[in-house]
């Protein structure tokens, strides 16, 4: 078998033009597929950034909420009702809203303001400078140091600015697990100060964060919240709901998946046509091998090996090229959201296997039809 595969490799590599065309075609097809799906995965990951950063086990919200950025305020009485449910270890309010910051140079910048529970500060970010207790100070805010931090003028501890005509002072710098999707800087403060600084409707609680006593209590908590007219989602369920919204209810998912499909069709057509052309140009050699006793099974093995070798080589090169591109883009563009996940790689591998299968199928059909007599007669 090793000798057969060696012959197959030599037949493939000897025609350097066709060999290079096959590798390049599949490499760029894989690059496009991985790049498009990586962009999609990055968008979905950043769309749930607040959920990951806060880290609550259960989120209580209005049933009409679809994404974490579009909260629907709830009455304050809901918090007391949730706290009274059996199985609840503790429940705290979270405020999430938008504000307008007036910087020192007179320019304005939109920001996301997170209001943490005054008593527990549950969901607080990891501090880099300053103390979390300083958030209780007069006009205290904590700035998140992420890719959007420079839009605030890269403030330092002690710097001041205005939020909706109210004085605000940076008392600390912090970092979070995931950057946001929409390119807006984030500020943290207390729940009461967020209500004071930002215009609000009659109801003010964006979300209620719940920690159950045990995982077994989650179904009872969910049922209890449903009885008062709201829904309780675990962190994974909320992330899944947000991902579903961006995938099927916006143009982001549709457009990126269509680009992935186009990349697959291009790769399939280029590699299939080039590989079939390679088979046609080497029909005499396959006929000679058949004439000296090589069986149809051994010929099929050769063709499958050639298609698989080219496809997997192109897959490796395309994945490496995409990873390098993303690394360079992140070094230059902090807002770049692409991430390569195991799902991206498996999807691209599956598409490459299909490309190899279709390409080899046409080649196998053509080779099995040839007769040694026709080859030697010519």
Q: In terms of quaternary structure, what is this?
A: single chain
Termini separation: 30 Å
Order of helices and strands: HHHEHEEEEEEEHEHEHHHHHH
Per DSSP E runs of 2 or more residues, the count of β-strands stands at 10
Query: How many distinct folded domains?
Result: 2
Chain-averaged pLDDT: 86
C-alpha Rg (nearest Å): 29 Å
Fraction of residues in H or I helices: 40-55%
Uncertain spans, ≥5 residues at pLDDT below 50? Answer: none
* Structural class category: alpha+beta
Describe the structure.
This protein has 378 residues and is α+β, with helices and mostly antiparallel strands. It has two domains: 2-46 and 251-377, no CATH class; 75-229, no CATH class. 53% of the residues lie in helices and 17% in strands. The chain has helices spanning 2-14, 16-47, 49-54, 77-83, 191-197, 218-227, 235-248, 251-281, 283-291, 296-332, 342-369, 372-377; strands at 58-61, 88-102, 108-116, 126-129, 140-144, 160-163, 166-175, 186-190, 207-212, 231-234. It has a six-stranded mixed β-barrel. β2 and β3 (108-116) form a beta hairpin. The radius of gyration is 29 Å and the shape is elongated. The model has no long low-confidence stretch (mean pLDDT 86).
